[in-house]
Design a protein that fits this description.
alpha/beta, Creatine Amidinohydrolase, Chain A, domain 1, 6-stranded mixed sheet, 6 strands, about 40% helix, metal ion binding, Creatin/AminoP/Spt16_N, Creatinase_N
C-alpha cells in the first residue's frame, strides 16, 4: 500500500513537470510570454521593409497612414501616433503614404520646417502642402499607381465621407480603395506605447 502511494505521488509529480514544461514550451513557441518579446527599436529601413512585405500580402500598392485616431482626433496619444512611428515626425498633423518603392509625407505650413528636420529624405519625400508645384495626395497617387492597383487604408482612421470621395477619385482612373482588417503599422510596431485613460 505504501509503495502504491509513493508510486502515485511520483507519477503526479512527473505529470506536473511534463504539463508545466509543455505550457512553457508552448508559450515560447507562440511568443505569448512577455519575456520572449523583442522590443528593440526598429530602424526606418526595417519598418518600411516589413510594411511593404505586408502590402504585397494584401495585394495593395499604396497604404495611407493619417495622423488621427479612431475618434478622428488631431491631438492623439503616443499609442495612436502611427504616422510618427513610420516617419519620425512629431507634429500633430500630416498624412503618410507608403508605396512599394517610394513614400511621401504631407503636412501643412505650420510644420514645414519641423518636418524638414525630422523626416529622413532618403526614405521619405516631404510634400509641403500649400506650396506651388507640390502635388496633392490624390495627384501623387494617380501619377504613381500602376494600372488596376489597389490602395489600402484602415477603416477606423478614415471618415466615411473621405473614403467615398477618395474611392470615387481612384475608381474614375481604374484604381480601387480598400479597407484592411488590421492596421499594418500595428502589426510591425513591436515597442508600441500602451493605451492610457488620460485625456
Amino acid at each position: 500500500m505504501k509503495h502504491s502511494k509513493r508510486y502515485l505521488v511520483g507519477i503526479s509529480a512527473l505529470l506536473v513537470l511534463v504539463v508545466g514544461g509543455g505550457v512553457a514550451l508552448g508559450r515560447a513557441l507562440n511568443k505569448d510570454d512577455d519575456l520572449m518579446e523583442d522590443t528593440t527599436p526598429k530602424t526606418m529601413d526595417v519598418i518600411l521593409t516589413e510594411i511593404r512585405s505586408l502590402m504585397q500580402d494584401y495585394s495593395i500598392e499604396a497604404y495611407i497612414i493619417p495622423s488621427v485616431d479612431a475618434h478622428n482626433s488631431e491631438y492623439i496619444s503616443l499609442h495612436d501616433r502611427r504616422y510618427q512611428y513610420v516617419t519620425n515626425f512629431t507634429g500633430s498633423a500630416g498624412t503618410a503614404i507608403i508605396m512599394l518603392s517610394k513614400a511621401a509625407f504631407w503636412t501643412d505650413s505650420r510644420y514645414h520646417l519641423q518636418a524638414e528636420n525630422e523626416i529622413d529624405p532618403s526614405y521619405w519625400t516631404l510634400m509641403k502642402e500649400g506650396v506651388t508645384g507640390v502635388p496633392t495626395r490624390d495627384e501623387w497617387l494617380l501619377s504613381n499607381l500602376s494600372p488596376g492597383a489597389q490602395v489600402g487604408t484602415d477603416p477606423f482612421l478614415i471618415a466615411s465621407t473621405e473614403y467615398e470621395r477618395l474611392g470615387g477619385v481612384l475608381a474614375q482612373h481604374g484604381y480601387r480603395l480598400i479597407t484592411l482588417e488590421r492596421n499594418l503599422v500595428d502589426i510591425v510596431w513591436n515597442n508600441r506605447p500602451p493605451q492610457t485613460s488620460e485625456e
